[in-house]
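hiii so um. not sure if this is the right channel but i have a protein structure encoded as tokens and i wanna go backwards to a sequence. like what aa goes where. can anyone help
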């Protein structure tokens, strides 16, 4: 087997771009170290630097925490953290925020103690919430200038090539770290597994400045930090079944179609019902993409899909498949969703199934905050896929926790209504009026097609009209659209 990157993306080979951005000459010699403390010494990490991290180990990541510990011990100030996502296990950041060690955070998604601290006004600088594609764009454009990229890498070989596909801390694809590896001034791979030679790898040694070996970079079990199983809830199953019927009626479930769903229970249930239609009609799809779960692995292995294009593995079955199956491809964040690359995967999607914390009468969707302004997530790939796909479908209950999901105006706009086509809930299907083509295709459907205003009125008939939540006028964060424009703000509570 020849030596080659596991990724099918061309991201790995933008070496000229990286040199231009960095304005430095790349040394061919990698420095090998046995502790992060030594890396801090070698790199002269000091006040005001920007440090980046990826989140493929999700709630099981140790590397961000280990770096934060050293920042605290050395009392380094005014650090900016550019982490693709932040999870509850990164609570150590709270103390650094309070002490002024960390003053700016750039991320695509976060929940837990760090988001609570920021919404309470403790961050002295700025919070910028990007999309996955928007983060790649901002790094490549130089909008985010990374001094040091700390890349948790489950396996590194003696040549300095790195992969996420194997090792005790295997996480599969490490696509969100690829822009960091290309454009950071210094790139540090942190690993707990050294091997002689890798046949497949995501990060080429020509991009690497330092390799640090540690006892553990994380716990792969923490990857499964959300729902990655098909819902058994009858309401969720009805929503999923109706969504699949709708997609079939508008002609999208056909030979060679492509799709993405979220990892939530209802979204995966849509994939289940799509699969049933495929089997009944003898249909074979082209590809599924995004964060990959075991359900799509099974469809690949059963011959229902030709390929998987993977920017992140959401469970251990996906990690196994990524390592073993030649049709399960990795890709960088730019190839996935960079808005300034016309050939990105999200632009080739026939449909995407997404969730919503809130959706309003203009079809704006919120997955960043709850109705009280607490940060509970972020766009991730939501805006990227919603914009790129031919048809974007939101699946959600009409009412959750006795609160209507449809609002007159969402608390925070994550994805604009111009990118949302359809809402499917248990009480009906609402189509964005701008999609006259879809309205025409289902004009004789037996599915309950209605206006979103009717669904809002129905929800209020059950719950009453909720009292409007008053938020302060003090901005604590910016919500960026994928092109870098500010789409909304997050306010102090």
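sure thing!! here u go:
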């Amino acid at each position: 087997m020849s030596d080659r990157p596991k990724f099918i993306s061309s991201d790995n080979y933008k070496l000229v771009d990286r040199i231009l951005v960095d304005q430095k000459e790349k040394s061919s010699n990698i420095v090998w170290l046995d502790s992060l403390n030594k890396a801090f010494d070698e790199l002269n990490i000091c006040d005001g630097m920007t440090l980046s991290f990826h989140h493929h180990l999700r709630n099981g990541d140790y590397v961000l925490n280990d770096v934060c510990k050293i920042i605290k011990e050395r009392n380094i100030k005014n650090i900016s953290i550019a982490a693709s996502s932040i999870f509850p296990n990164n609570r150590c950041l709270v103390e650094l925020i309070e002490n002024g060690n960390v003053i700016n955070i750039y991320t695509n998604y976060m929940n837990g103690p760090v988001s609570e601290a920021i919404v309470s006004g403790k961050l002295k600088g700025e919070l910028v919430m990007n999309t996955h594609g928007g983060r790649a764009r901002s790094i490549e454009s130089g909008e985010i200038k990374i001094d040091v990229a700390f890349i948790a890498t489950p396996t590194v070989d003696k040549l300095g090539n790195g992969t996420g596909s194997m090792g005790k801390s295997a996480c599969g694809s490490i696509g969100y770290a690829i822009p960091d590896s290309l454009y950071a001034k210094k790139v540090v791979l942190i690993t707990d597994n050294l091997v002689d030679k890798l046949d497949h790898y995501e990060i080429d040694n020509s991009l690497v400045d330092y390799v640090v070996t540690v006892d553990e970079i994380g716990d792969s079990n923490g990857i499964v930090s959300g729902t990655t199983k098909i819902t058994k809830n009858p309401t969720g199953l009805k929503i999923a079944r109706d969504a699949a019927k709708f997609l079939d009626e508008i002609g999208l479930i056909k030979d060679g179609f492509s799709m993405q769903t979220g990892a939530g229970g209802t979204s995966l249930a849509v994939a289940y019902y799509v699969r049933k239609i495929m089997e009944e009609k003898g249909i074979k799809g082209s590809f599924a993409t995004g964060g990959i779960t075991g359900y799509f692995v099974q469809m690949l292995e059963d011959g229902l899909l030709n390929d998987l294009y993977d920017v992140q593995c959401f469970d251990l079955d996906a990690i196994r498949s990524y390592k073993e199956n030649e049709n399960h491809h990795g890709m960088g964040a730019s190839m996935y969703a960079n808005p300034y690359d016309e050939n990105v995967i999200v632009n080739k999607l026939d449909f995407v199934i997404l969730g919503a914390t809130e959706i309003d009468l203009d079809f704006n969707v919120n997955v960043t905050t709850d109705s009280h302004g607490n940060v509970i997530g972020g766009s991730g790939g939501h805006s990227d896929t919603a914009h790129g796909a031919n048809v974007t479908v939101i699946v959600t209950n009409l009412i959750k926790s006795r609160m209507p999901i449809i609002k007159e105006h969402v608390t925070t706009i994550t994805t604009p209504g111009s990118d949302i086509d359809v809402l499917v809930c248990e009480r009906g299907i609402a189509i964005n009026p701008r999609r006259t083509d879809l309205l025409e295709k289902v004009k004789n459907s037996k599915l309950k097609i209605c206006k979103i205003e009717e669904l809002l009125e129905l929800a209020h008939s059950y719950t009453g009209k909720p009292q409007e939540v008053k938020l302060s006028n003090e901005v604590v964060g910016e919500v960026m659209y994928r092109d870098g424009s500010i789409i909304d703000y997050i306010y102090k509570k």
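oh and Confidence is low (pLDDT under 50) at residues 1-6, 8-27.
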